[in-house]
Each structure stands twice: as C-alpha cells, then as structure tokens.
Design goal:
The chain is mainly alpha-helical. The chain contains 10 helices and no strands. The protein is globular and about 50 Å long.
Length: 203
C-alpha cells in the first residue's frame, strides 16, 4: 500500500496544471517563455493573476492530497514523508511532460500543510513578507525554503530527525531549483511580481 501511494503521489505531481492552462488558453508551451517554469509565478507573467492563483492552488492541492492519502491509508510518517517527496518530484520532473516542470514551491507548501500546518503558516508569512518587500517571488521562495529546517526543529514534536532530514532536503531542492532566478536577481534581469510577458497565441 505504501509503495502504491508513493507511486500515485509522483503521478499526481506529474499533472502540470500550468502547462495545460497556457497550452489551452494560448496554444504555446509555457516552458519556452518567461522563466521556463510551469509554476504559478510564470503563469501570472503570461496569463495574469487569476490563472496564476488558480494554478498555485491546484499545485498546492496535489501536495496536500498526497500527504492526506498517506496519512489516511497508512498512518505511517515515513510513507507520508516519501509521498511528499514524490509529489514534489513529480511536479518538478513530470512523467507526462518530458520531465520538465516547475520549481515545486506551491506543491511543497501543500504537502507541508498536510504534515505540519503551523510550520506552513509561519513559512507562508515569511515568504510573502519577503515578496512584499523585494517584489521578487523567487527570493521569497528561497528565504522561506532556507527557514524550513529551523521551523521544523522548533515547532514539530515527534519524529524530529526524519522530519528534519525531509525539511532540509526540501529546502536544498528548492534553493537549487531557484539558482537561475538568483542569478537573474544579481544581474538585475529577474521579473518582479506583477510584470507581464506578452506571448502571441498560436491557437
């Protein structure tokens, strides 16, 4: 059962809502535009706030549902952690879309909500505060990711070491996925929140 749930989590993560939205509405591959990511931030740049928020919520639900299924069907914290990793991996490297997906932030937040809601709330406050001050979503994502292991250490009781290892892995993965964004911030070419990219429809 545990292996089935982990496999299901990866396949669920592989459903790229961002790719599907832009393909349907614009007839183009979002991975060829903007940052090249299928995540909500790139969707906002191309389709606007409404579709971007919708994709963010759908991606987060993938993460939450994977952990919820693991909790409900097994109650095993190790299966829950593995399912969280699998759904984020599916989002980042989707089986159905040539293993090229997003950065995994929304999906990670959804999975973390299923595991430790208090940590996720604090994480969201930190991330959104940084975005509000800097106007860079990528910077808020990185600062939040770096904060994750410390928040788990202070606020999660029981299974501390496995959860801490998981949080550290998720943190390093998020930072690694955002290296191109950090380079663009340093070069002054990273798009700020609210900036739009014009994409000609091929439909």
């Amino acid at each position: 059962m545990g292996l089935l749930i982990i496999a299901f989590s990866y396949l669920l993560g592989s459903i790229s809502f961002g790719y599907l939205f832009v393909k349907y509405l614009k007839g183009v591959d979002i991975r060829e535009h903007g940052s090249g990511s299928t995540g909500a931030t790139n969707i906002m740049r191309i389709l606007g706030v409404g579709p971007g928020v919708t994709v963010f919520l759908l991606d987060a639900l993938k993460g939450f549902f994977s952990v919820y299924a693991a909790k409900t069907l097994t109650g095993n914290p190790y299966i829950e952690i593995a399912s969280a990793v699998a759904v984020v991996a599916g989002h980042n490297w989707p089986l159905f879309f040539g293993f090229k997906g997003g950065r995994g932030i929304a999906t990670s937040l959804g999975a973390l909500t299923g595991l430790f809601p208090k940590v996720t709330l604090i994480l969201a406050i930190i991330g959104f505060s940084v975005v509000g001050l800097s106007k860079f979503v990528s910077l808020g994502s990185v600062v939040g990711a770096v904060s994750l292991p410390f928040l788990i250490w202070f606020f999660v009781e029981g299974h501390n070491i496995p959860y801490l290892v998981f949080g550290t892995f998720l943190s390093l993965l998020a930072v690694a996925r955002h290296i191109p964004n950090l380079k663009r911030i340093r070069a002054g070419t990273e798009s700020k929140i609210g900036q739009r990219i014009k994409v000609d429809s091929r439909k």
